[in-house]
Amino acid sequence: MMPTPMKSRLLRAGSILAVLLLCGPGQAETPLEAAQQLAAKRVEELRQAHTEAQQELNCNPPLETIVVSSADCAKYLNPDVDPAITTKHVCANCHANDGNSTLSHFPRLAGQQQAYLANQLIAFQKHTRSGQGARDYMWGIASPLTAGQIDALADHFTRQSPSSNPISDADRPRLELGRQIFENGIPGKKVLPCGFCHGPQAQGLRAFPRLASQHSAYTEKALGEYKENITRPGTPMRQITRDMSPEEMRDVALYVQSLP
Ligand code: HEC
Ligand code: HEC
C-alpha cells in the first residue's frame, strides 16, 4: 500500500491533469484559447514524463515533481532541495527560467516585487488564493516549499530583467483609454488611479505588484477575480474593481502590458 499522503497527492495530480486536459484540443479563436490549447499539450507531455519517471525510479513523484527529469527526481523530493534546481526544473516549464513566460496563460514573474511574489506563494500554500488557475497549477507546487525556499525563489525572479511584451496592432487603439484609467482612474466610479499604488510606470513597490509587461489576458483575469472578491479576498483591489466594466479592465490591462 502507498502511504496515504502520497496516495492523495497522486489522486490530486490525476484530477488536476484531467481538469487541464479539458482545455483542448479544438479550434483556437482567441489568444487565450490558443494559449490554453498549448498548455493542454504541455500537460500531455508532462503526463508522459511523469509516467516514465515513475517507471524508471519507482518513486511515484507527486504532481509538483512531474516536470523533474528522472535523474533529479530523488534530489527534488528532498525538502532541502536547492531553489535553483526547483526553478530550472519546475517553475521554468511554465514561467520560463528568466520569468518572461511567452504564453499568456502563465503570468510573467521577471522583475516582479520580491515581497509580492513571496506573499502569493504563501497565499497558494494557505489556499487563501483560490481561483481555478491557483488550484490547478500552484497549490500543489507551492505546498512543499519551505519559508527559505519561498524567499529564494522570489529573489530569483525579482532579479530577472523583464523583456517587452508587444501588443497587437488590432489592440493599439485601446491604449489611450487604458492610459487614462491608469493615470486618472475613473472618477465617476471611484476607481483610483492605478499608478497611485502600482507606481507611475506600473513597476510596483513591495506588496504592490509590478504590472508592466504582464500578459493582458492574465491581468484581465486577475481583475475579474478581485471583482468577484472570493478567490483573492482582503485587498484594496476589491474596491478598485467593483464598478469597473469588462471593457475598462481589458483596456487598462492592454495599457500595462505595453509598458516596458
Ligand atoms: C504547470 C505550470 C506551472 C508551474 C510548473 C509553476 N507555475 Fe506558477 N503559476 C502558474 C499559473 C497558471 C499561475 C496563475 C494562477 C492563477 O490564475 O491565479 C501561476 C502563478 C504564479 C504566481 C503568482 C503570480 C502573480 O502575478 O500573482 C507565482 C508567484 C508563481 N506562480 C510562482 C511559481 C514558482 C516559484 C514556481 C516553481 C516552484 C511555479 N510558479 C511553477 C503555472 C505554473
Ligand atoms: C490602493 C492601492 C491600489 C490601487 C489604487 C490599485 N491597486 Fe492593484 N493591487 C493593489 C495591491 C495591494 C495588490 C496585491 C493584492 C494581493 O496580494 O492579491 C494589487 C494587485 C493587483 C493586480 C494583481 C497582479 C498579479 O500579478 O496578479 C492587478 C492586475 C492590479 N492590482 C491592477 C490594478 C489596476 C488596473 C488598478 C487601477 C484601475 C489598480 N490595480 C489600482 C493595490 C492597488
Fold and architecture overview:
By secondary structure, the protein is mainly alpha-helical. It has two domains: 12-20 and 32-158, Cytochrome c-like domain (Cytochrome Bc1 Complex, Chain D, domain 2), CATH 1.10.760; 172-258, Cytochrome c-like domain (Cytochrome Bc1 Complex, Chain D, domain 2). 57% of the residues lie in helices and 0% in strands. The chain contains twelve helices and no strands. The chain has helices spanning 4-21, 31-57, 70-77, 83-95, 114-126, 132-142, 147-158, 175-184, 195-198, 216-228, 237-241, 246-258. α5 crosses α7 and α8 (175-184) crosses α12 (246-258). The longest helix has 27 residues, at 31-57. It starts with a helix and ends with a helix. Mean pLDDT is 79; it is low at 1-28 and 53-74.
Bound molecules: heme C
CATH architecture classification of the largest domain: Orthogonal Bundle
The class by helix and strand makeup works out as mainly alpha
CATH superfamily of the largest domain: Cytochrome c-like domain
Residue runs with pLDDT of under 50 for 5 or more positions: 1-28, 53-74
Number of domains: 2
Portion in beta strands: under 5%
Strand count, sense and barrel status of the largest sheet are: none
- What's the overall average pLDDT, rounded? 79
Tally of extended strands?
A: 0
What descriptive keywords fit this protein?
single chain; 260 residues; mainly alpha; Cytochrome Bc1 Complex, Chain D, domain 2; 2 domains; globular; binds heme C
